[in-house]
Known about the structure:
Blueprint: E1 31-33, E2 41-43, H1 45-54, E3 64-66
Antiparallel strand pairs: 1-2, 1-3
Bound molecules: zinc ion (ZN).
Zinc ion (ZN) is lined by residues 9, 11, 25, 27, 43-44, 46-47.
Amino acid sequence: xxxxxxxxxxxxxxxxxxxxxxxxxxxxxxxxxxxxxxxxxxxxxxxxxxxxxxxxxxxxxxxxxxxxxxxxxxx
Length: 75
Ligand SMILES: [Zn+2]
């Protein structure tokens, strides 16, 4: 099954300023976190929690959209 949307995680800081080119995480983004006056933040499952607290402009309570199927852990 192909991945039709291969956006990468921008978490947990949101790729602002000197990090605008991306972050240390190169996992596929699975969630999109809505932010005030900013682009939605794309994050992988690992960085979803941290990004809610660390990224700028995150709404509270958070508004999160699932944008891709979460990778399954090995059986
Ligand atoms: Zn990540």
